[in-house]
Amino acid sequence: MDTPCPPAPDTDRPVHLDQHDSVRTHVCQRLSDEVRRLENRIESLRRTDAPHAAIIIATYERMIERKRGFMARWGLADRRNY
Length: 82
Known about the structure:
The termini are far apart. It contains 2 helices and no strands. By secondary structure, it is mainly α.
């Protein structure tokens, strides 16, 4: 015979909005750091005579555009530190 499951206890977890804000700040800082690193790589590639530098630079620029687009869509653009 099947016995019914007891009802789940009513457990409301409190939402700490300040934690969400700290996550957003962390993500923004991380993305800003990544963009800065990519920009530095682009500058160093422009100074070298590497055979495929143009392709790598174009790829890095697309990555930067996507990261900045993500930051703009999620309202992180006003927090960036670069």
